[in-house]
Specification:
Helices cover 62% and strands 0% of the residues. By secondary structure, it is an all-alpha fold.
């Protein structure tokens, strides 16, 4: 349940870095260190800061899960059944944000996509479905094989050899997908190094652009693999 307009008035005029109840400094914390009240989600906050993490792409999965379980218990609505409606709504909002943040940050590819979206490098869900130039010939051959398989299936012909050819192509593209994931992980490490070194904006932008291009390439190849899987399973 979202915070109502009436409840919103409770925090209007209060600085984002201050507690809505006692006005002590909270600096984006989940709870006020002075009065213990749960706090609203701050504008401009991201999933990384929700877990008190820097915007790096290498994350300790075990530490992330530990933090998630700890926050799940602290923010759970059951802990606010005797609190005001305003605080119960804050609990629901924080719990929902926690789940969304955890689902995103625990997956390496989703983590990269989220960072690029948050920094404005690409729009949410944006992918450029265009074959990379060096794959054009292989993609053309794959599409021909898919068409032949559909035609053979439609006329009741033998599809064994065609399925075998597609399985070989599938393996080839799965290997290319693994290569992209490896390149994406490498670019992620470069981003972390640039962040630690406080590199110039041009250097950081170059890494972000590279990761965006890799995501586009990954999305295209993944769709090819999924398409082949569907035809083989049909």
């Amino acid at each position: 349940m979202a915070i109502t307009q009436k409840q919103q008035k409770t925090i209007e005029g209060v600085p984002a870095s201050s507690c809505w109840s006692c006005h002590a400094s909270v600096q984006g914390a989940h709870f006020c260190g002075s009065c213990g009240k749960i706090q609203p989600l701050g504008a401009g906050r991201d999933y990384f800061s929700f877990f008190e993490l820097p915007r790096k792409l290498e994350i300790d999965r075990a530490a992330l899960e530990g933090k998630f379980h700890s926050l799940s218990w602290k923010l759970h609505p059951d802990n606010f059944v005797r609190s005001s409606e305003f605080e119960r709504n804050l609990s629901l909002e924080r719990s929902s944000e926690l789940n969304d943040a955890f689902r995103t940050l625990r997956e390496p590819v989703a983590r990269v996509a989220y960072l690029l979206e948050f920094l404005g490098v690409r729009k949410e869900g944006a992918t450029k479905q265009q074959a990379p130039p060096e794959l054009l010939e292989e993609v053309f051959e794959l599409n021909e094989s898919l068409d032949e398989l559909r035609e053979a299936r439609a006329r009741g012909g033998d599809t064994a050899s065609l399925r075998e050819r597609l399985m070989a192509a599938q393996k080839n593209f799965q290997e290319k997908l693994a290569e992209v994931d490896s390149d994406l992980a490498k670019a992620g490490r470069e981003w972390d190094v640039a962040l630690d070194a406080r590199a110039e904006e041009a250097s950081r932008s170059a890494v972000l652009t590279r990761m965006s291009e890799l995501l586009n390439r990954r999305a295209y190849i993944r769709n090819l693999v999924e398409g082949v899987n569907q035809e083989i399973a049909a």
